[in-house]
Amino acid sequence: MEKYYQLRPIKYKKEYEEKIAKKIIKWLYDCFFKGCFDILKDNNTVDNNNNVIIEALKAGSIYYQDNGFYSKTGRFSNKIAKELELIGAKYSKYRKAYIIDYKKLNVEITWAIETLRAETLTKADLIKTFLTTQLGNLTELQKKLLIKTAVEEIMLDLQKRVFKTLEEKNIPVIAPKLTDFRANEIAQNYTENLDYWIKNWCETDIVEMRQVVGQMAIDGKSTKTIAEFIENRYGVNKRKALFLARNETSLATTSYLEATYKEEGFTSFKWNTNMDGRERKLHKELNGKIFRFDDPPVIYKNEKTGEEQKGLPGQTYNCRCSFSPVFDTDFILSRRKKK
Length: 339
Fold this sequence. Notes:
Blueprint (H helix, E strand, L loop, with lengths): L4 E2 L7 H26 L12 H8 L2 E4 L2 E4 L6 H9 L3 E3 L4 E3 L7 H30 L1 H5 L5 H21 L11 H39 L4 H41 L4 E5 L8 H6 L3 E3 L5 E4 L6 E3 L11 E6 L1 H10 L1
Antiparallel strand pairs: 1-10, 2-3, 3-5, 4-5, 6-7, 6-10, 8-9
Helix pairs in contact: 1-4, 1-8, 2-4, 4-7, 6-7, 6-8, 7-8
């Protein structure tokens, strides 16, 4: 193709992935995390107390284990350290804890320790049972993750944007819309890919969370500390959801654009790399080059194994490149005759 023209590239919209990620995050919260937070709601049976040690135990800033008081952060405030020393506890640099035999603790403190420990163990058992039940119902729960409709909305928006680029070049549209079969196939593949990753993710991450919660209770950690841990895991899972939505939405977007342009008769495209200093070396080399849709370039190469992946912009993880369908004068003349 000696002289060619090109369509304006369809830039990837971040709102696409955000729409999907929002649904995944809400599903995770409703199915797994909300139940845990409800179980952990504060209902301490230990009354408010002027005893600094008991209040610190209730707050979760310290905990008692193996004849020692430990700080959640590894450091004790001067106020708490002073009170622990007053009851006879001695600081151990080796254990980083205030050591005192359980039998030497007064009744008020031992009662608080045992009451809080019983509460924590009970709540930890409830959380483990809840998570086990939810994992057992994972297949049914995944049916509540209504992603397909959101994907179809994204493809409809892409379709409007594609047709606008054709209008800008006065190129008549041949296919009024992507065939229902192809559109449904893309949406279905997207949904199945998400289901696969979410299933694997839950069966590893949620199982691990269940195990850690149980161990934290055994170690004497407070319910507030467990709640902070679960809150942290929720944050980690939200970031995972964003990463998953970004990659899968990018793949679906590229698949849809490729199928649409092919139906419109385009056979080749120009690679556009986002040159901002963060681009892959391989993709930098691809910038501005022309390829056929049926013979795309290598977009990823494993340096260790030599394994290569061919594809279009957006078809490998975290790819921010785009492409512009290219055509010549004969293409426009041929298209207008068909119209």
